[in-house]
Write a structure and sequence with these properties.
By secondary structure, the chain is mostly helical. The protein has one domain. The protein is 78% helix and 0% strand. The protein contains eight helices and no strands. The longest helix has 49 residues. The N and C termini lie far apart (62 Å). This is ABC transporter permease. GO terms for molecular function: heme binding. Keywords: Cytochrome c-type biogenesis, Membrane, Transmembrane, Transmembrane helix. InterPro entries: Cyt_c_assembly, Cyt_c_biogenesis_CcsA/CcmC. It holds the Pfam family Cytochrom_C_asm.
Length: 253
């Protein structure tokens, strides 16, 4: 049945907007598809039977990608801090802090999944281990970053000092959790002479879930950051409007 003239005027512009939106947001749809696949296969798929690990090996699909994605988000946050120091754009500072917030969220989830895993395999949710202690120190550094930002009232000073601290924090965080634990004895796989999971526990089927999980969680973290950046921009606009209203009233009087 042919469309009437009025329907055509409404239908085609809407279709055009939908196509443009889909082209811009394809990565969000990809993140949803990947995470649905990871959760479904990760919880219900077959896994290698290993002593001590047993079914807890499924945590590889969630715990490990959380940490990889967290490092990517922290790196991106540091890059935007450098951009702010070079160009002085407040939007770069906003993006930097929101990437840091998303990274901290992933770090908290990584610690939670790691503690559950440690309680099953090691019998202690947080043993006195160099790797875990280094992670705790690193997370405290980023909590201090958020506290530092909230301690300044001046916007420019807050952005400049927190950007410098963010660069310093990332430069310390990476060797703190990746290099130093390898120099000492550790229970954690891949540290202290212990082989990593890929060398003795994982098969090709698990890699088909692990690698997409890293991509999916990274995209999800970027999505969360984008939403928080938009919310921050709206909040800043409202603050500017509220600041301008008293001036407008005083001028009118």
């Amino acid at each position: 049945m042919p469309l009437c003239w009025c329907c055509r005027c409404c239908y085609f512009p809407i279709c055009g907007e939908v196509k443009i939106t889909m082209k811009k947001n394809w990565w969000k749809a990809l993140a949803v598809v990947i995470m649905t696949y990871v959760i479904w296969v990760g919880l219900l798929g077959t896994v290698p039977r290993q002593p001590i690990l047993n079914e807890s090996i499924r945590n590889v699909y969630f715990h490990v990608p959380l940490w990889f994605s967290m490092i990517i988000l922290m790196l991106t946050s540091m890059i935007y801090s450098i951009r702010y120091l070079r160009k002085g754009r407040m939007d770069d500072d906003h993006i930097s802090v929101e990437f840091a917030n998303s990274a901290i969220l992933y770090g908290i989830l990584g610690c939670a999944t790691g503690s559950l895993w440690a309680s099953v395999t090691w019998g202690d949710p947080w043993p006195n281990d160099p790797k875990l202690n280094s992670v705790a120190v690193g997370m405290l550094m980023y909590f201090a970053y958020l506290i530092l930002r909230n301690s300044f009232d001046d916007e420019l000073r807050r952005a400049r000092i927190s950007a410098i601290y963010n660069i310093f924090a990332f430069a310390v965080f990476v060797p703190l959790i990746f290099i130093l634990p390898r120099l000492t004895d550790s229970l954690h796989p891949g540290n202290g002479g212990n082989p990593a999971f890929g060398k003795y526990d994982m098969d090709s089927g698990m890699r088909l879930v692990l690698y997409p999980s890293v991509i999916g969680m990274t995209l999800l973290g970027v999505w969360i950051t984008q939403l928080r950046v938009r919310l921050r921009r709206l909040r800043d606009r409202l603050d500017h409007v509220n600041d301008a209203l008293p001036k407008a009233h005083s001028t009118a009087e």
